[in-house]
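agent> Task received from the user: take the single chain below, predict its 3D structure, and emit structure tokens. No templates, no multimer pairing.
agent> Plan: (1) validate residues, (2) run structure prediction, (3) serialize to tokens, (4) report one or two observations.
agent> Step 1 OK, no nonstandard residues flagged.
tool_call: predict_structure(input=
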Amino acid sequence: MKKSKVLMVEDDTNVSKLITDYLTKTGYDVTGFSDGPEALEYVRQRGLPHIALVDLSLPSMHGFELANKLKSMADVPIIFVTSTGDKETIVQGLKKYAEDFIVKPFELRELEARIQVVLARMPSFDYASEPIVRVDEHLNIDFAHNRIVVNGKTIGLTPTESILLHVLLRNAGRVVENRMLIARVWPSEDVFEDTLRVHMHRLRRKLESDSHHPHYIRTERGVGYMFTQRPPDLFGDRA
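)
tool_result: status=success, residues=239
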């Protein structure tokens, strides 16, 4: 079984070692960094994690800023792990960026349990295996750099398009309801289906040779959208 990749960004070396040792023993592949820029560069070079654990008080980049940059690449699930217990900060973090928020000090078993709960809500698409997701002979996706390669041509994506594509690809072969897409892409905004349709149309124009007869993204009228191609060897169980 493939291990879930955990990206941890924590500047306290003692806390970082405790979390790394515990999660490694329980079957996770943990990569840790002490600051945001290093973590982002790693993601650009090595691909997306399955989940990110992010402290708020980092040396050169606030945890919210790091979360925002990760979320501009794809729908990366994030748990804030921090000593900040301010209720307004927690509410803001949960509304805009995070799946969960855990305040120090905490039990390592509790952290692992929260990770398991978050990952259980995510389809088991191993998008963290390579920096480039090779969908088929015509389409490659580089989420960390917001771009696709269609028949050898590199095309840039907006952050919104990248997140939409990521959510659809992670659920490939299943219809993702409009309300779910809106909730994942615009978690803290009041967005209606007309806005979703506009962004989906723009994404299709970049993906498809004929956007009126799409190959990759199918519309289930009145319900949602489905990414039709399942990348080979990228779906399976995780530890």
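agent> Step 4: summary for the user.
The first helix runs from residue 13 to 25.
agent> Done.
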